[in-house]
């Protein structure tokens, strides 16, 4: 994704969201997870974006909304579909990209945002 060697620089604009963390899947080549928030993370909701990269660019595979900004994301080391995000409300969310529903589990362990 670097234009320095003649490769295409790929971007995806998501109106009303600002990206905070992105991580490529260790299992699926070209699959990217991005944690995003509204209003630069100061207020508003968050979104977990699952993107697929191919020769024609980036396409949205799936997205999940959360009631507070999402600031970090990481893939599971044991399952190709599982991710964990952290948000400004102090919780951790466990997501399954194979399912189009909300988080599998929410861990409310902190009283304020954490990174």
From TrEMBL:
Recorded GO CC terms: cytosol; peroxisomal matrix
Give a yes or no for keyword rRNA-binding in this entry: no
Q: What is its main location?
A: cytoplasm
| Keywords in alphabetical order | Cytoplasm, Peroxisome, Protein transport, Transport
Keyword Ribonucleoprotein attached: no
Which InterPro entries does this one have? Answer: PEX7 (IPR044536), WD40/YVTN_repeat-like_dom_sf (IPR015943), WD40_rpt (IPR001680)
Indicate where this protein resides in the cell: Cytoplasm, Cytosol; Peroxisome matrix
Identify this protein by name: Peroxin-7
Give the originating organism: Canis lupus familiaris
What taxonomic lineage is listed for the species of origin? Answer: Eukaryota, Metazoa, Chordata, Craniata, Vertebrata
